[in-house]
Amino acid sequence: MRNRKHMVAVGGICTTAIFRVPHIAPPPAKILATQHREVVDGMAISAACAFQKLGGQAHVWGRVGDDAEGDVMRRALSAEGLDTQGLFTVKGSRSSHATVIVDGLGQRLVVPFHDPQVDTSPHWLPLDTLANIDLLHCDVRWVDGAHAALLAARARGIPTMVDGDVAPRAVLAQLMPLADYAVFSDAGLLAYTELPDVPQALLQVAQQHSSHVGASCGAEGYYWVENGRIEHVAAPQVDVVDTLAAGDVFHGALALAILEGQSMRSAARFACVAASLKCTQFGGRLGCPTRAEVEAELQKPS
Q: Does residue 1 sit within a domain?
């Protein structure tokens, strides 16, 4: 169905075990989990899954290990309808894993493992297939791949979005100027600008960017710069169960809404609702709502 919007997501990919506990105690401690899920995820991967579930067609480009886990990752994402032809097996490497502990307030402790010897070269990226893509979305976890894909997309006039999460400042300085939609997390934005205030930081970044600059701020909603002024959409209040992947769902939902031609205010509201509803469900990106659930929430009185 070519009438669906198509997005390529470039970034890290891993298998994540998620455990829910009443609270996270300081060590040494042993706490029994009340829930457990396993999911194939990653920042850009989770954004792609949200894009797909909400009505788009997502393609994922990333590196998997030369092991059985890499095959499991391919099958899991293919089963959800994503195009996984852009997953590349790095010979001699191990797939990434993560453990996430989610407490009773929905906050989390994330412990990832990435093979330190993995080849970071992006030489294998299927850049020619960008001709059939409506938007390229990258996270900041695989810098070489994101940089190569962003340059290729911009050369072809394809809109780009970068998830400006917390990362070394040099990484953000390399990737964020290549984004038509520089969509930070609040923590990533403040780390990038070394300023204490989100609106002030957005205005500073906007002076260096000719395109969209915004920040997803969790329960506080989304702030962005438009015509030199700060604009804001609030997030709906929800009972938070699990915040894992909420920012990623926001990115996927925002990308889809923009491609559908929604105004930035409408797109931001759509994305805030999708991310907020995700927070009511345990299981990271598996809690992403359906399009019908988002639309129903949007119809409720403000």
A: no
Burial 29-49 (b: 16+ CB within 10 A, else e): eeeeeeeebebbbbbbbbbbb
Inside any domain, residue 91: yes
Distance between CA atoms of residues 31 and 22, nearest Å: 8
Range of the domain at 148: 6-298
Taking only the tens place, the pLDDT of each residue in 145-190 is 999 999 999 999 999 999 999 999 999 999 999 999 999 999 999 9
CATH number of the structural domain spanning residue 242: 3.40.1190.20
190 in any annotated domain = yes
Identify whether 33 is part of a domain: yes
Q: How far apart are CA 267 and CA 256, in angstroms?
A: 8
State the Cα–Cα distance between residues 57 and 7, nearest whole angstrom. 6
The CA-atom distances, in angstroms, between 133 and each of 108, 129, 268 are 34, 7, 22
Report how far residue 9's alpha carbon sits from residue 156's, in angstroms, rounded to the nearest whole number. Answer: 16
Residue 235 is classified by DSSP as: P
Total domains in the fold of the chain = 1
